[in-house]
Design a protein that fits this description.
This protein is mostly helical. It folds into 2 domains: about 160 residues, no CATH class; about 70 residues, no CATH class. A two-stranded antiparallel ribbon has the order 1-2. The chain has a two-stranded parallel sheet with strand order 3-4. The relative contact order is 0.14.
Amino acid sequence: MGLVGRIRTVSVTYSFDPNIREAEDVIASLFKEKNNEATKNNESLEPKSQTKNKHIRAFLSDKKKAMEYGFENIQKRSADEKKNIVILIDGDRGLEKAIDRAAESKDIKNRIIFKVLDFIHVTEYLWKAANIYFGEKSPHRLNWVKEQCLILLQGETNIVLNNLQKLVQHGKYMTAKHRVIKSVIRYLSNHTTMMNYKECLARGFPISTGAIESACGHFVQSRMERNGMRWSLKGAKNMLNLRAVNKNKDWDTYMRYYIEKKQVDHKILTNFKKAA
């Protein structure tokens, strides 16, 4: 079988230095405005240069296990149990529930100070609404989306929801178009607790899942979904596990573990034969 269509959950843990930004810096970076330092450095959404000690692991069809692994890694790497945790996710409700269950089972829930909805996913929903209202060729879409993004980053989510409601109320739309805009309203309404971007920027936290999206691309897709490739579930898991060992620079540790395990297994087998 291929991996297309199978749920892959990638757990990425890393440390970062706070990087305080203004909402306008993010807008400039996101929409590539010229003559702006934020655009040159491209650090407003997720300061990659400040991402440290990244650790990655991929799981197939097991969201809770992926979250538990991520929390275990955090506990191992951080002796300071008071160190805060910020979680970045893409809005999958199943993933959010898996995070809550895993955090409870690992007794780490009290360290999670923010669950942040990936801002790039939010902008994609806003573009969807703009395309329906203005039309995909309209020059007005860009300014409208930029304005809504800025309002969100300034902490005024309710204003954006009201503006979306106005799109539904204004003019005559086909039912299908109504449904699209309402789906955007529903998506944002369901995730308002994870959209405190104003405080995230003020405290220097990342607001996008760039590190995770990048991992999904180069770690999973580029290796596992090449033309003509077919994988059994066991083979796919083994390959992803070995890639994780290599990417995390744990190869020497893994080989020591593997050799010791083989030696123990061989000793047990030898003793069993003698006893027989």
